[in-house]
Amino acid sequence: MRSLTGLRALLLLCLLAAMRPDPAEGDPTDASFTSLPVREEMMAKYSNLSLESHNISLTEGSSAAVEKNIALERPSDLTLICQFTTSGDLNSMNVTWKKDDELLENIDAFNTTKKGNTLFSQYRFIVSNSKQMGNYSCFFGEKELKGTFTIKVPSVHGKNKPLITYVGDSTVLKCECQNCHPLSWTWYTSNGSVQVPIDVHKNDKYVINGSHANETRLRVKHLLEEDGGSYWCRAVFPLGESELEHVELVVLSFMVPLKPFLAIIAEVILLVAIILLCEVYTQKKRSDPDNGKEFEQIEQLKSDDSNGIENNAPRLRKNESIEQ
How many domains does the chain have? Predict the structure, then answer.
């Protein structure tokens, strides 16, 4: 009986031991239980994101703010580092971070270390939406020496000079961005002061295509003078949209290039007419003295003839008187 009782007690002890929670697993109600920090949970969630690291260097003697532009097109695990070099005491150096004008207070996201006479302040966070884009600034010391990271989507570029073409032709407008892959492109045209999206499905005058993902081409067919004006392109990224890039189109009629040619022809005709008039006037002027001389000679001959007749008349009278 004793052996049986001891066996039962041993089984009971084993059962109690099996029901006891494993200390390695921890008890959710135990005060020693701690969950992962929020930042680590986010890092685990976005573990497949690309890592981005950017830094700015500041020195004690610098007075101007240092700025750096960062182009992001998709969610990223971003690390911003400000390093400050000084000959003073780094232990008493105060470091603060701001997004735009708002103070950042997430302690888990910051890491400040010193090496020699240089202080390194690091801010790491996940950029997952357009609201997290903007200006991130670090401030050092009482003078608040400032370094600013400007985070925005990649910018797009078009042709700076106006594109000139003629009525009836077709032309191609182009926009592109360097080392980027937008989700989509959108073209706009102007309707007075309003920007109107171009829908290629409703208007066969336009064709949108591109040989690469980082560019877009808008083809405008059968141009009219009213097709001239301003066109804009916009790229759409997972983190937001780019600013509109302006492209100017000038459509000319065929009379426009002919106007300078016609003006030259008119000037040549006018010059030839002036030359001919000068020649006629010169020749007429040269012939006027000869005509005057001939007129004088004719008048002289007439006067001589009249004088001869008058002289012969008395002679005839004298001869008649003698004969009588």
Answer: 2
Which residues form the domain of 199? 163-255
One domain for residues 228 and 139: no
Q: Which residue has the higher pLDDT, 212 or 220?
A: 220
User: What residues form DSSP beta bridges with 187?
Assistant: 233
Q: Specify the pairing of strand 240-241 against strand 229-237.
A: antiparallel
Dist CA 254 CA 167 (whole Å): 7
pLDDT one-digit tens code per residue, 44-70: 555 578 899 999 999 877 777 899 999
The answer to whether the predicted template modeling score (pTM) of the entire model surpasses 0.70 is no
Same domain, 57 and 114: yes
> For position 97, what pLDDT does the model report?
94
Burial class from Cβ neighbours inside 10 Å (0-12, 13-18, 19+) for residue 247 reads buried
With 0-12 CB in 10 A as exposed, 13-18 as middle and 19+ as buried, what is 128? Answer: middle
**DSSP conformation class of 49:** S
